Amino acid sequence: MRRRNRKQEPLAISEVELDRLTRDLDDAHHAALPSMHESLAEWRESDDDVRAGITRLVSTPASRRAFLLGGGAVLGGFALVGSGVGSGVGAAVTRTRASVPAAAGQKLTGDLAVVALAASLENLAVGTYQAGIDAANKGSLGDVPPAVVTFAQTAQSQHQDHAAAWNGVLTGAGKKAVSGVDQTVKTSVDKAFAGVKDVPGLAKLALDLENAAAATYLGAISAVKSPAGIKTAASIQPVELQHAAILYFLLGQYPVPDAFAKTTTARTTSDKIG
Amino acid sequence: MGIDDVRLRDLLEQSQDLHSDAMTTTRAALDELVELGHDARRGREEFVAMAPVDEATRRATLMGGLPKSGVLAAAGLGTAMVALLASPAFADKAMDVQMLQTAASIENLAVATYQTALTLDFIGGASANAVVKAFAMKTKDQHAQHAEAFNAATTRLGGKAQDQPDPVLLGVVDNAKPSLTGPAQVVDLALELEDGAAQTYVANTGTYSNKNARSVAASIMGVEAQHVAVLHAVKALVAGGAAELIALPPDATKLPAAAGSVGFPNSFYPTTDARPANEGAVQ
User: What pLDDT is recorded for position B94?
Assistant: First the structure.
């Protein structure tokens, strides 16, 4: 990634001090991982519960159906392009079961459909950050501040962790991992990315993705049946919102705009994955 | 300092508009609680045990979650737990209500703590960084709204609203007050409270038996995590003697590389320092 070439003012802040803080925080991250693994193991062990959750879908509350079958959400500030989400709602709600038809060639329903959706969103985030890093390395975004480089690399790494966690659930349940992305959202991301010319443009796109992921997890917490699934979503949603807070800050916007997290940009299992 | 007060006010107003949208989600959850309460009174099943949260998890949340690090670890929690568990009132209360009351008690304490901080000149006075002051004011208001939401959920489940602070954490805050001699100490205390709140709500989200109570907590936990992210960044910049970089918009070119990631240290939000579920329950 191309960093700023111009001579910078000496930093009053000590890089050594910040490096030490970062190492401490990295240690904390690794300390949190065992708890996460326990949660995933619990989910795998309660595979019967996951499967039972699938069968319970037929008689689910309206909010669960809406999440699983599609709600016509938009991603951040730009409407989905050619997604068919809006037009598909009427048809979708007439179905009795949610499914992810394009998830690695397998049909998934119920909680596992939500898991696949989550994995695909994480994969999309990883890919989008990579595209941003590649664009920066080519010099397409102009000068890129060091803090933005660190942000993108760290956020991307955490999204990889999230994707691995969700795929661990799928493989633990005897399903294939999702290596593809949410194509419905990607259509919009691709269009927006084509117009990104600088760091703020990329940051706005990343912010939309982070908020959409967080909203999806908040919706999932109400929709999935598996306790371990709820725990997993609950452990990730705050991290996506932390990414969003730093992006707001970098964009010069107030970093905690809402007293309550929203579900308005949540994705649904009617999204195409592949 | 590079701070545009007019722009900051504009941003706060914009965020207020966004907040109104967000409230819709939480109000919907609370409204559902009312409807479900009516259903329950009609003898329907939806009111209870909406998700099969296992008893072991609930027990672990109730008994566990004692902080393993930080100033909270030294707060004599074992004694407090024993006292609470021995209370007859404890046995009579549904765990969901206790968790909601504890959450409200944490929020009440956060409101009081930020209010106290704002009386300090270097946080709320003339010598304060404008962004830090605005953050303290806005965050205090957000915590007040969280307390209101938790209490609304509590009363709609048949419990009593909690208007008192978490008794254990109150001791921590009281002990810390004499040492609040500069922004760094205030940020440390706020960070401890915010992270404790976030970890508690993350842990509890996996434990609530009532789906709508869970939704209320889930809609708040990420916001506390955002407070944590901001405070981590502020802490690092203050510790590095670069408080002037705490500005909206920031001079991103001058931010050190580590500032880009210091706000979100974990891929998965931890729960090791979550507060016990009944710590702030109404006695």
Answer: 84
DSSP state of A80: P
Cβ–Cβ of B205/A234 closer than 8 Å?
Answer: yes
Q: Which of A9-13, A239-243, B221-225 has the lowest mean pLDDT?
A: A9-13
Is the CB of A235 inside 8 Å of chain B's CB atoms? yes
Calculate mean pLDDT across residues A238-247: 98
Contacts B244 to A, Cβ<8 Å = 12
Of B51, B227, B250, the CB nearest to A230: B51
The model's confidence at residue A107, banded by pLDDT at 50, 70 and 90, is: confident
Pairs across A and B, CB distance < 8 A: 280
Backbone phi and psi for residue A106, each to the nearest 5 degrees, phi listed first:
-130, 150
pLDDT, position B53: 47
Residue A247 in tokens: 């992006």
Would you call B256 and A146 a contact, using CB atoms and an 8 Å cutoff?
Answer: yes
Residue with tokens 């609950």: A234
What torsion, rounded to 10 degrees, do the Cα atoms B179, B181, B186, B189 define? -10
B-contacting residues in A 13-42 (Cβ below 8 Å): 13-15, 17-19, 21-22, 24-26, 28-29, 31-33, 35-36
Contact assignment for B252 to A264 by CB distance below 8 Å = no
- pLDDT at position B33 is 46
Contact between B229 and A255 using a beta-carbon 8 Å cutoff = yes
> Which ipTM score applies to this complex?
0.77
pLDDT digits (tens, 9 = 90+) for B139-185: 999 999 999 999 999 999 999 999 999 999 999 999 999 999 999 99
How distant is the Cα of B144 from the closest Cα of chain A, in angstroms?
Answer: 9
Most confident by average pLDDT, A89-93, A117-121, B50-54: A117-121
Contacts of A147 (CB under 8 A, 6+ apart): A250, B252, B255, B256, B257, B258, B259, B260
State the DSSP string of A90-154.
Answer: HHHTTSSS---TTBTTB---HHHHHHHHHHHHHHHHHHHHHHHHHHHHTTTT--B-HHHHHHHHH
pLDDT in tens, B249-260: 999 999 999 999
Chain B partners of A32 at a C-beta cutoff of 8 Å? 266-270, 272
Residue A49 touches partner B, C-beta closer than 8 Å: yes
